[in-house]
Amino acid sequence: MPTNEGAFSASKPRPNSATRVPPPGRVHRGSRVTRVNAPERAAVIDLEAIRHNVRRLVQVASPAAVMAVVKADAYGHGALPVARAALEAGAAWLGVAHIEEALPLRAAALTAPLLAWLHTPDSDFGAAIAANVDLGCSGWELPRIVAAADLLGRTARIHLKIDTGLGRNGCTLTELPALLADVARHEAAGQIEVVGIFSHLAVADEPERPETDAQLATFLAAVELAHAAGVHPSIRHLANSPATLTRPDIHLDLVRTGLALYGLSPLAGRTPASLGLRPAMTLVTQIAHCKEVPADQGVSYGLNYRTPTATTLALVPLGYADGIPRIATGGPVRVNGVTYPVVGRIAMDQMVIDLGEAGLVSGGHSLLGAEAVLFGPGDGGEASVDEWAAAASTINYEVVTRISPRVPRVYRG
Ligand SMILES: *Cc1c(COP(=O)(O)O)cnc(C)c1O
To answer: At which residues is N6-(pyridoxal phosphate)lysine found (predicted)?
Structure first.
């Protein structure tokens, strides 16, 4: 586990690990092994970066409050540590998709307002109400939420979810008057309290598109309908990360930020730094094998890559079971101050980089055990999550969220 900044910068030779005599054959001739205090395999999460990002978002969103969206294990960063850091730094709310993601936060004694918005008929509304978890409600959930509240003798806190154009969850404007009549009746009976009303944006990451304004107009019409029906949710929320960063006019009472919390940019062509954000996750491992091979050596399943010259190959012990997309051949790996593309297929557990002829001579020693960084904040020259997203034809959200539980999370800050 890294304990200081040095763990991510210059390599520190560890002569005591260099005494092993390399076996003959294809193992690298050099006997000196470069080691750093890199974790074997880790997603290192910088909680100070999370706090920094939250402070930034609180400043941007003010006077609206900030909900830290920690669904999907905080986009792969670890829900509990991230939730704690976010609340410390000024987030007022927590948000998750599923009730099952909310309950562990309550079990860990986090008492901040907490919303879960994606349910099925089998969702445990009773457990949510008992744990004081607010529930998104598109309509069909209402009788089940009311029944669960009745059973507990408690008042369920709900947020009406409006479909303003995304076409997923939410009540349409056409269905809304009928839902509001039921909502008003159950609220009068003390079975529910309508705390909020919200919707989700479809194209906020493309600020030039007109649909966001149309969604806003539909949302405000829904709020009007609610008031007309005697339902007065005090918290209106619509903005996700991109809208928080680009549309101060639609922050309303609360913004729901996920990606930006983790220091990643939701906007094409905008770096995190240009948005005042710091990427929180560094994916790091150690070189697991390093050896010389002749020209025309095939590499990994399918032998899709053949070494153009005699060269040195280094094995990186992360693969698709760790959440590295198999399609991401060519993705950048930083070793000893140089960035190498992954060559050949990414396998379940491992992938290979070609150190090139320079690898043979550079320092004249094996890189076995050397720190290998796939992505991070960039202060060590390593690649960004966005570069891995490009290599995998996907988005930064997916890259960090898919880092699997097999990769230990290590916390700093
Ligand atoms: C995931 C999610 C968010 C957060 O979106 P980001 O773009 O990551 O900020 C906000 N609201 C809802 C309903 C979501 O599902």
So the answer is: 71
Contact 239, 46 (CB under 8 A): no
Mean pLDDT of the chain: 91
Both 298 and 176 in a single domain? no
Residue nearest ligand 1's atom 6 by CA: 258
Same domain, 249 and 174: yes
Question: How remote is the C-alpha of 291 from its chain's centroid?
Answer: 35
CA of 333 to the centre of ligand 1 (A): 29
How many structural domains comprise the chain? 2
Higher per-residue confidence, 25 vs 359: 359
How far apart are the CA of 403 and the centre of ligand 1, in A? 19
- Structural domain range at position 175: 47-266
Q: Residue whose CA is closest, atom 8 of ligand 1?
A: 258
Q: Cα–Cα distance between 105 and 91 in angstroms, integer?
A: 15
In the prediction, which pLDDT does 21 show?
A: 31
Q: Which of 239, 266, 293 is the last residue of a domain?
A: 266
257 lines ligand 1 (CB under 6 A): yes
- C-alpha to C-alpha distance for 236 and 5, rounded to whole angstroms: 42
Q: Do 148 and 246 have their domain in common?
A: yes
Distance 246 CA to ligand 1 centre (A): 15
Ligand 1 atom closest to residue 259's alpha carbon, by position in its atom list: 8
pLDDT(282) > 70:
yes
Closest to 282 (Cα-Cα) out of 25, 41, 72, 26:
41
Q: Establish if 146 belongs to a structural domain.
A: yes
pTM of the model: 0.90
Active site residues: 71, 301
